[in-house]
Write a structure and sequence with these properties.
The protein is of the alpha/beta class. It has 18 helices and 15 strands. The structure holds pyridoxal-5'-phosphate (PLP).
Length: about 450
């Protein structure tokens, strides 16, 4: 086979990769679940390790030729154990959703009751949402946040006592306050449930010491590796000492649930190597600084948005994300703000807010995060400026209102998109965003 690089081999894809790079270079990536990885992580991810089949685990593979792959996987495991302070880790899950599914397979039988945060309240699909297999294969018992945005611990305990779940999830995809792991641990122990902490969003903050660790309180911990942890797409499943005490065979059950009895086949070795690199990076003093700066930045951004007159769920944040409540501008208006900000070079996502008067597809809020822009070196000064720009864009499109019927909505949104494409205010903000970005290069 001729040696040809991507540009020579497939100019169409090469051009699209380049276009995406340019989009990022001159825009602000503020979706809380995204980040910019290091060149070292990317190099491992793009390495020749992708070619190898290694079904099984180090020392117990189905295929030959895994001498070096075993070393890669062992390094990833050892680094994860050290970074989080746990006795056991499986580093093979392809992503967060299969990791969570493996936890179900390892611990429950279909029909068992499972408690998780309701999706519109910030929970993840895999925590028992009705449209996900976790909510159909198992008995779904949702819990909620209060009007003020905080988890309703008293109600959560009552629900647990009533439904006696076999497994309780603590973790979320849109929750801005610190997770009360200790209190959840006590509730799970009271009803004899497994407590599974899904720290997908906050894993990097936990390693950096910028968020409390769930390790003393949970039996199992899952996380993605591509959010605040700043690694490649992937996931980890960890078992704590508390988990091994509850079931000494829990680690073997998790391994089996990932492979061979679960949803996965051969591990993605290039991904495992890149996870190992990210974990090494995450255990440095620079990363501890980075994690703390993410939170500081989110808090300054929160203050800046409030100073402009915007309303935040729970009034602020303890972590890397903010939820802006857009109901003062009308219900279901997240879609307009998301697209308008995108037009202005600021990428965020529309999101439900607690007690959302609209729907997950047309939610009444937006979710904003600081991990990626903090990776670029932005600090408090930039957050104050960005907060002003976000507010300017929101006020610019505040008169757009979501029509009642599906047909009307399609027409209205089409017209809205035409109008924002030529809106001078959005163009002006986009120019300022691009100017700012020039001083904060991407890491690759
Ligand atoms: C809390 C939580 N768990 C799990 C996942 C699923 O991860 P993935 O998208 O990698 O399947 C996410 C993704 O957003 C998440 O926020």
């Amino acid at each position: 086979m001729e040696k040809r690089n991507l540009k020579q081999q497939d100019p169409e894809i090469a051009e699209l990769v380049e276009a995406e790079l340019q989009r990022r270079k001159f825009g602000l990536e503020m979706i809380p679940s995204e980040n910019h990885t290091s060149p070292a992580v990317l190099e491992a991810l793009g390495s020749i390790l992708t070619d190898k089949y290694s079904e099984g685990y180090p020392g117990k593979r189905y295929y030959a030729g895994n001498e070096f792959i075993d070393k890669v996987e062992n390094l990833a495991r050892d680094r994860a154990k050290k970074a989080f302070g746990v006795p056991y880790v499986n580093v093979q899950p392809y992503s967060g959703s299969p990791a969570n599914f493996a936890v179900y397979l390892a611990t429950l039988t279909p029909g068992d009751p499972v408690m998780g945060l309701n999706l519109p309240d910030g929970g993840h699909l895999t925590h028992g949402w009705k449209a996900n297999i976790s909510g159909t294969l198992y008995k779904r018992v949702p819990y909620f946040v209060k009007e003020d945005g905080y988890l309703d611990l008293e109600e959560i305990r009552q629900i647990a006592l009533q439904h006696k779940p076999k497994l309780i999830w603590v973790g979320a995809t849109a929750y801005v306050r610190e997770f009360p792991f200790k209190e959840f641990g006590a509730i799970a122990d009271e009803v004899g449930a497994y407590l599974v902490a899904d720290i997908a969003h906050i894993a990097g903050l936990v390693i950096a010491g910028a968020h409390k660790s769930p390790v003393p309180f949970a039996h199992i911990i899952t996380t993605t590796t591509h959010k605040t942890l700043r690694g490649p797409r992937g996931a980890l499943i960890m078992v704590t000492e508390k988990g091994l005490k509850k079931d000494p065979e829990l680690a073997e059950k998790i391994d089996k649930a990932v492979f061979p009895s679960g949803v996965q086949g051969g591990p993605h070795n290039h991904q495992t190597a890149a996870i190992a690199v990210a974990l090494k990076e995450a255990m440095t003093p620079e990363f501890a600084e980075y994690g703390k700066q993410i939170v500081k930045n989110a808090q300054v951004l929160a203050e800046s948005l409030k100073a402009e007159g915007l309303q935040l769920v729970s009034g602020g944040t303890d972590n890397h994300m903010l939820l802006v409540d857009l109901t003062p501008f009308g219900r279901g208006t997240g879609v307009f703000v998301q697209d308008a900000l995108d037009q202005a070079g600021i990428t965020i996502n529309k999101n439900t807010i607690p007690k959302d008067p609209s729907s997950p597809f047309y939610p009444s809020g937006i979710r904003i995060g600081t991990p990626a822009i903090t990776t670029r070196g932005m600090k408090e000064k930039e957050m104050k400026i960005i907060g002003k720009w976000i507010a300017e864009v929101i006020f610019e499109v505040k008169h757009y209102q979501l029509p009642e019927t599906k047909e009307e909505r399609i027409k209205y949104i089409k017209q809205f998109k035409k109008e924002i494409a030529v809106n001078p205010k959005l163009k002006e903000v986009k120019g300022k965003v691009a100017e700012l970005c020039k001083d904060f290069p991407l890491p690759y």
